[in-house]
Amino acid sequence: MAMFREGNTGAIEIRKQKRADLVAEELKRLITQRNLRPGDKLPHEVKLQQMFSVSKSTIREALKSLEVQGLIRVSTGPAGGGTIVEVPLDRTFQLMQNYLFFKDVGIADIYTVRRLLEPELAAGAVPHLTDDDFKALERTIDLCDPASAAAATPLLDQRQEDLTFHDILAAANPNPMLRFSCELINEMIRQLVVFGNDTPACEHEKFGAANVKFHKRIVEAARQRDAETVRALMSAHMEECTHYVTRMNGRVHGRLVLDSEMPRRGRMLPADDE
Predict the structure, then answer these.
(1) Where is the chain membrane-spanning (predicted)?
(2) Contact between 72 and 82 (Cβ < 8 Å)
(3) Strands 81-84 and 72-75
(4) What is the pLDDT along the chain (274 residues), one digit of tens a residue?
């Protein structure tokens, strides 16, 4: 099968597509047209073969393509077939990082975006935070607070708990685009931001103490349902985070994220010896 398009020179170029790729595209249209949601099933393989007049192997290749993209889960057996799934953040992060790997993204780029988005994310979450959310936020603070008995967490693990604080706020925000963008940035920081080996532990301690101070004030304002104060506090918090990360020689360790890393959350690691 082939698709036709006009090239830059005005000539007609022919771009051949595999039959399985065309079927995968049609299946995406089917998912859209039928408004299928996570948990819904695609028609069985035999039905799909009849619908598209193709072989079993072509259908299976098309289904595998959609599974790799994270759109479906394929199971075998009499009740098997393709089931719609919600594309996981980890898979999206992997694809995004594979794209950004070739774009020379630096720590300043990440924190520029973070300073813009996090204040709005936090303010928008305020009306929707539940008692369980507040308990979870306070737990992350306790794990990082030097004055807390729970704060026996290693310093670099504390940086992950700091990000968990922001993830909780993201989960409470009803804006899916804002939530996705901030969760993606948090995941990039977890997996790709490293600090130089010469960064003294006292710098991590100062960074952690500064985060705890802001997180406590943000939670207090959020409990009062004061979204404007939360916005202002988060803005100041992000400015201070940028200052600390820069001073601690934080950098993006550009790499392709492996499939074996997908099922778990990453964490910020010390940089390798250079």
Answers:
(1) none
(2) yes
(3) antiparallel
(4) 444 445 555 544 445 568 999 999 999 999 999 999 999 999 999 999 999 999 999 999 999 999 988 899 998 877 678 999 988 777 787 888 788 888 888 889 999 999 999 999 999 999 999 999 999 999 999 988 877 756 556 776 787 889 999 999 999 999 999 999 999 899 888 888 887 767 788 888 888 899 999 999 999 999 999 999 999 999 999 999 999 998 888 888 777 766 666 544 433 444 443 3
Write the Ramachandran bin of 104: left for phi over 0, alpha for psi from -120 to 50, otherwise beta.
left
Residues 100 and 176 in one domain: yes
CB 264, CB 89: distance < 8 Å? no
Q: Which residue has the tokens 């924190």?
A: 111
Q: Which two tokens stand for residue 159?
A: 């940086």
- Note whether 137 and 79 are same-domain residues: no
**Same structural domain for residues 111 and 175?**
yes
Contacts of 183 (CB under 8 A, 6+ apart): 89, 167, 170
Domain containing residue 189: 89-261
Record the tokens describing residue 176, joined without a space: 């899916």
> Could you say which of 84, 109, 127 is where a domain stops?
84
Q: Is residue 222 part of a domain?
A: yes
For tokens 């594979």, name the residue.
Answer: 98
